[in-house]
């Protein structure tokens, strides 16, 4: 009978209850009845009905133990041999059947929901054992338990915590239960957080696997935000370190690394900065890695940033031609760090024409023209030294570099560039790639 009331209360919470007569379901009763002696008794109802997805009712007779007659021995024996797994299935089956039932008494359901949450989960732990865990993995059960966190007290939290802690790894990657774990991290005590952290870091590689899961990554990010003690942070960092490169490149795991950068101190993120500097080329050339590397530069400072920027700049020519690495080089250029700019320009010098004619590196040359004024004379001089300058104007990538050069330069340098372009105006005005140079009035002095 406990499972039936639990399931019905879950239904009430979701607002999917059909208006049913009192003869069918005993409304307004607490989840558990407490006797004067402080003991918890299982709830009972005279005649209850289970509503299936088709809206039909099948009678479920649940008589109080005290009213049972001697003729009910057969029923008693059947209930006695019911396994705990069978009871769990009954709860979940009932809830799933009720999902299809339309709510036409929403106001009443809301009042019942409030009453249920006020009741909380205050019976003996043994009364709930075996029920909370399967409830976590069902949408309605998960919602009910989250509501208990909002409305309940520390005793309610402890009851749920005790029931699910041994399954926390599984629940973190569950489509529904992961929300409950996130909610738990908001309300649990520091001691409970430590227990969770110990569970996650007990097995090597397990936390990394959770981070790479679509649902698990959200919980780990929440955990990183929630932990405050040095012990907890140290345990998490040690567990993440062996799989850091895999996390950086993973579509889910990279968000965990970025959350570390946002939430932890520079000293605590040292292992991330060191790995980013050591494997900067490998990371920068990856779809997700390039974003993480930029964040590493953004959140670092002092010697950590100097080491990162130096390592990236030293590979500027290679990274500027990469589909993802070019974004990292552009970000370094935007910082306008003199030492990094000097290192990059020394590598680019003599290659500006080649870089301008490449899809990805052409963006880097444009960024140099806009952000590094000292680079403009070098770039313009190289572009004008091309034997067939008209071919450069018609190149599908280099023409954008020329446009950026006309927009960014001023004075004699711009005049020199305009004079080199004008002789080709009649011939190239209709060219598909360079016609923008002539149509945007960029040649006006």
UniProtKB/TrEMBL annotation:
Entry keyword annotation includes Glycosyltransferase: no
Listed Pfam families: PUF
Record domain PUM-HD: where: 104-445
Single GO MF descriptor: mRNA binding
Keyword Repeat: yes
GO cellular component: cytoplasm
BP GO terms, sorted: regulation of translation
Pumilio repeats: 127-162, 163-199, 202-237, 239-274, 311-346, 382-419
InterPro entries per UniProt: ARM-like, ARM-type_fold, PUM-HD, Pumilio_RNA-bd, Pumilio_RNA-bd_rpt
Keywords: Repeat, RNA-binding, Translation regulation
Cross-referenced CDD domains: Pumilio
Function: Sequence-specific RNA-binding protein that regulates translation and mRNA stability by binding the 3'-UTR of target mRNAs.
Name of the protein: PUM-HD domain-containing protein
